[in-house]
Design brief:
It is built from 13 helices and three strands, in the order αααααβββαααααααα. By secondary structure, it is an all-alpha fold. The protein has a three-stranded antiparallel beta sheet, with no helix packed on it. It is globular and about 60 Å long. About 4% of the residues have low confidence.
Length: 328
């Protein structure tokens, strides 16, 4: 019990320091800020969600006493709450039914009965929910309506650009307006990506230490629940209604699209299993996406197409040899 409290306090202190480092304005502080949930997630997966809850509460109190209640509320909403709940979901499991598919069953290291673990696809949906929640909360601090949010974003970007000559002011204004239009979706995409990365890193660190009770599944087989596609379609349609609902719909759409981008990468990892030079091929795809960004739209399309037509399932079925007929 004492050890768990010490782990919780250490994780909370580390997470709070990483979160507060953004105040320094240093470039490395941005990386630390985005990785702030990692210590609490490691505590949740290795020592239980209660450790993450205690560490998050201690960190929130400390930040509130040092920097004020707004910092404490921001930390709890964007760091402590996702770390605690996602860590809880990773460890969530139930005894597997006798007729459960083999790919959904895992055995704990000690060899107890099989366990049906909470699916990674549903964890991805929860990550999308938290990313949308934190991005929405950040935008609502700029204003309560679309025009106020847009004008605040535009004013902030204009101050950063700080156009000095009138000859280029029109062009600068057009560029700033374009950035303002994509800012909510871009912020949601970054939040979704970094939160997913934190969960993956926390699971890897905890597994390397031998404290992860869940056998980490093959991520190439991860699938999203069918309702995720329905939610994506509805959110995409709401992007065209205008006003604040459209901004909020853009945020939700961006988060869900990133989930399907991950499914698209899973498809690529699956269908290239038998190819020579697979590592080079996949590295080239990742490099192109990182450099140009826009090709991720094609990856999203692959992920959505897989959800509809089941590319990975058909590929695995074709490569699986049929069972041998019993000899008479």
């Amino acid at each position: 019990m004492v050890m768990n409290l010490l782990i919780a306090a250490a994780a909370g202190c580390a997470s709070a320091l990483m979160f507060a480092s953004i105040i320094s304005g240093a470039l490395v502080s941005l990386l630390l800020f985005y990785l702030a949930p990692l210590p609490l997630m490691v505590a949740a997966m290795g020592w239980g969600p209660t450790s993450a809850a205690i560490g998050g509460a201690l960190a929130g109190v400390g930040l509130g006493a040092t920097f004020g209640p707004p910092y404490s509320a921001a930390f709890v909403l964007t760091v402590a709450l996702p770390a605690w709940w996602l860590g809880h979901l990773v460890l969530l499991g139930r005894p597997a039914p006798a007729d459960a598919p083999p790919q959904k069953i895992g055995a704990t290291p000690a060899g107890p009965p099989p366990v049906d673990w909470y699916p990674l696809g549903r964890i991805l949906v929860w990550i999308a929910c938290f990313a949308a929640l934190t991005t929405t909360a950040a935008l609502l601090t700029l204003g309560s309506d679309a025009s106020t949010i847009t004008e605040t974003l535009r004013h902030g970007l204009m101050r950063i650009v700080d156009a000095q000559d009138s000859a280029s002011s029109d062009r600068t204004s057009e560029v700033v307006d374009a950035f303002v239009a994509i800012a909510p979706a871009a912020a949601a995409t970054i939040a979704m990506t970094t939160l997913t990365l934190n969960v993956w890193l926390a699971a890897k660190v905890t597994a390397a230490s031998g404290r992860l009770r869940r056998p980490w599944p093959d991520m190439k087989t991860t699938t999203l629940p069918p309702m995720a596609l329905v939610a994506t379609t509805v959110a995409l349609a709401l992007c065209f209604v205008g006003g604040l609902p459209a901004i909020l719909a853009q945020i939700v759409t961006a988060c869900l699209m990133m989930s399907y981008a991950l499914m698209g990468f899973a498809v690529l990892h699956t269908i290239t299993l038998a190819q020579r030079g697979r590592r080079l091929w996949l590295t080239s795809v990742y490099a192109i996406v990182l450099v140009f960004v826009w090709p991720v739209i094609a990856i999203v399309g692959i992920g959505i197409a897989d959800a509809i037509f089941g590319f990975r399932q058909h590929y695995v079925q074709r490569r699986t040899p049929p069972p041998l007929a019993p000899r008479s």
